[in-house]
Amino acid sequence: MAVEHPRGPLSGYADEAVTQGMESPDSKERGPPGIPASSFAGLDFSSLWKGRERTTLVESELVQRALGEGPIGRLLELGTGNGRLSSQLQARANEYVGADRTPEFLRELRGDSDSSRPPRLAAADGYRLPFREAAFDAVVMVRVYNFLERPTALLQEIRRVLGPDGLLVFSCDPRPSIATLVADVKWALADRRGEPFRFATFARQRSVRIHPSSFPTFAPNYPALAEDIAAAGFRVDRVWSSGLEDYLPFRSMPARFSLTLATALRPIPFLPTLFVRVRPGRVDGRPRQG
Ligand SMILES: C[S@@+](CC[C@H](N)C(=O)[O-])C[C@H]1O[C@@H](n2cnc3c(N)ncnc32)[C@H](O)[C@@H]1O
Q1: 131-174 tens-digit pLDDT
Q2: Nearest atom (ligand 1) to Cα of 126
Q3: 220 near 204, Cβ under 8 Å?
Q4: Which atom of ligand 1 is nearest to the CA of 102?
Q5: Is 152 exposed, middle or buried (0-12, 13-18, 19+ CB in 10 A)?
Q6: Fewer Cβ within 10 Å of end Cβ, the chain: N or C?
Q7: Angle of CA points 61, 267, 288, to nearest 5°
Q8: What are 77-114's pLDDT values in tens digits?
Q9: Which domains are delineated in the chain?
Q10: How far is C-alpha 29 from the chain's CA centre?
């Protein structure tokens, strides 16, 4: 007999239909999809992540810290990719649902899974999720934010599917940061075929497109990130920093040390990655720092 989840069914359709790669008809009506050009299908995750196990260790630890110790009913991982963090998230929640707009990754994930507890996976665009209002207790979105052209719209959609006491944990690389400086140096050295030089790190716009980049990649500045979060109806609860471990001089640093260093350096807004925990609600003062 099927056990009913306290948050009700996932969608207005058979849950199985939604989590077997179908987009529900009403999700199409909820606004335009994400940038068509940003197809991640050709991405070779294993070569991309070769030698960067420490980064995954640090990010796994940060996600666990941000999710806290209490029980989690139903959790949505948005932008699973090839599932770098999926098994730990599956283990952390009562019920796990993974969603990604690139079906190829979901097929890989389904193939990798332990068949005794197969994950529920939905091929879905984060801008129009095929789930009911307040269907989830937690949403986790790692390394997706900077590929979003309209982050507020996507955050609003997450807000819709999140329960009123739910939490969203996401990572974001705002600027200025080491990442944008590195990108700027690469752009300066690249063969730009007559294109003028553009400096992302200290640009005036609230969000800038990063060059060179294989996908449309955007770097919001800190005020833009805060505005996007607030405009979507979230308040920042807590922030952690990371990212040093992804740079060659720091790659052999033990994960714990890397986390301590990142916490100590937190007031200097130059680390590449923030892990942000937000909750539904209006801004109420400064976030606590991790
Ligand atoms: C860089 S990968 C990150 C994957 C994984 N979260 C990780 O940290 O390894 C970005 C992922 O986000 C997905 N993605 C990007 N835009 C999306 C959107 N609008 N809706 C759903 N998934 C999206 C891509 O298909 C890709 O799998």
Answers
A1: 999 999 999 999 999 999 999 999 999 999 999 999 999 999 99
A2: 20
A3: no
A4: 25
A5: middle
A6: N
A7: 60
A8: 999 998 999 999 999 999 999 999 888 888 888 776 66
A9: 15-174+233-284 (3.40.50.150)
A10: 24
